[in-house]
Amino acid sequence: MQKFLNKQTVITSLILCALYLLVQISVVFDLLNPFYTLNIILIGINIILAVSLSLIIGFTGQLAIGHAGFMAVGAYTSSILTVKLGQPFPLAILAGSVAAAIIGFVIGLPTLRLKGDYLAIATLGFGEIIKVLLINFEYVGGASGFHGIPHITSWSWVFFLALFTVIFIKNFINSTHGRACISVREDEIAAETMGINTTKYKVMAFTIGAFFAGTAGALFAHYFYILQPNNFGFLRSVDYLVMVVFGGLGSISGSILAAIVLTIINAALQSVAELRMIFFSVLLIAIMIFRPQGLMGNKEFSLQFFNRLLRGGKQRDLAQGK
Amino acid sequence: MEHLHTFLQQVINGVSLGSIYALIALGYTMVYGIIKLINFAHGDIYMVGAYIGFFAITKLNMTFIPALVTAMVFCAVLGIIIERVAYKPLRNSTRIAALITAIGVSLFLEYTGMLIVTPQPRAFPDVIPQTKFNFFSGSVYITNQQAVIFIVAVVLMFLLQYIVYKTKIGKAMRAVSYDKDTALLMGVNVNTTISATFAIGSSLAAAAGILVGIYYTSISPLMGIVPGLKAFVAAVLGGIGSIPGAAVGGLLMGVIEAMVSGYWSSTLRDAVAFGILILILIIRPSGIFGSNVREKV
Amino acid sequence: MTLLKVNNLTKTFGGLTAINNFNLELHPGELVGLIGPNGAGKTTVFNILTGVYTPTEGSITFSDESIVGLKPFEITQRGIARTFQNIRLFSDLTVLDNVRIAYHPHVKYGLTSAVMRLPGFYAEEAELTEKAVNFLKIFNLDTKKDEIAKNMPYGEQRRLEIARALAAQPKLLLLDEPAAGMNPQETHSLMNMIKWIRQEFDLTILLIEHDMSLVMGACERIYVLEYGMTIAHGTPEEIRTNPKVIEAYLGEEVPHAYSR
Question: Over pLDDT 90: what percentage of chain C?
Answer without folding.
Answer: 69
